[in-house]
């Protein structure tokens, strides 16, 4: 499950598999689906990470 965290005024979505944070829930969900399926990171997805 993608986790949400509050950072100041912003809500960030965290991939529970790789712990990367995203501003878009949709992208975080894609990342998590990818990570749990392939156990690797998809560079096209993680370039959207905020931290
Ligand atoms: Zn991930």
Secondary structure layout:
Blueprint: E1 3-7, E2 10-14, E3 21-22, H1 25-38, H2 43-46
Antiparallel strand pairs: 1-2, 2-3
Bound molecules: zinc ion.
What would your notes on this structure say?
- The protein has helices spanning 25-38, 43-46, and strands spanning 3-7, 10-14, 21-22.
- 24% of the residues are buried.
- The mean pLDDT is 95.
- The chain is built from two helices and three strands; from the N terminus they run βββαα.
- Helices cover 35% and strands 24% of the residues.
- It has one domain (3-46).
- A three-stranded antiparallel sheet has the order 1-2-3.
- It has 51 residues and is α+β, with helices and mostly antiparallel strands.
- It starts with a strand and ends in a 5-residue tail after the last helix.
- The radius of gyration is 10 Å and the shape is globular.
- Bound molecules: zinc ion.
- The site of zinc ion has 7 residues, from α1.
Concise summary:
By secondary structure, the protein is α+β, with helices and mostly antiparallel strands.
Please describe the structure with a list of short key phrases separated by commas or semicolons.
51 residues, 3-stranded antiparallel beta sheet, 3 strands, globular, binds zinc ion
Strands, count: 3
Distance between the termini: 19 Å
Sheet with the most strands: spatial strand order: 1-2-3
| Structural class designation | alpha+beta
Given the structure, what is the number of helices?
2
Bound molecules: zinc ion
Mean pLDDT metric: 95
User: In percent, how much strand structure appears in the residues?
Assistant: 15-25%
Task: Determine Rg (CA atoms, Å).
Answer: 10 Å
In the predicted model, the low-confidence regions spanning at least 5 consecutive residues are: none
Number of domains: 1
The proportion of residues forming helix, as a percent range, comes to 25-40%
Largest beta-sheet details? 3 strands, antiparallel
């Amino acid at each position: 499950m993608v986790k949400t965290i509050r950072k100041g005024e912003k809500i960030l979505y965290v991939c529970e598999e790789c712990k990367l944070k995203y501003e878009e829930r949709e992208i975080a969900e894609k990342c998590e689906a990818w990570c749990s399926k392939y156990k690797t990171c998809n560079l096209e997805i993680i370039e959207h990470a905020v931290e």
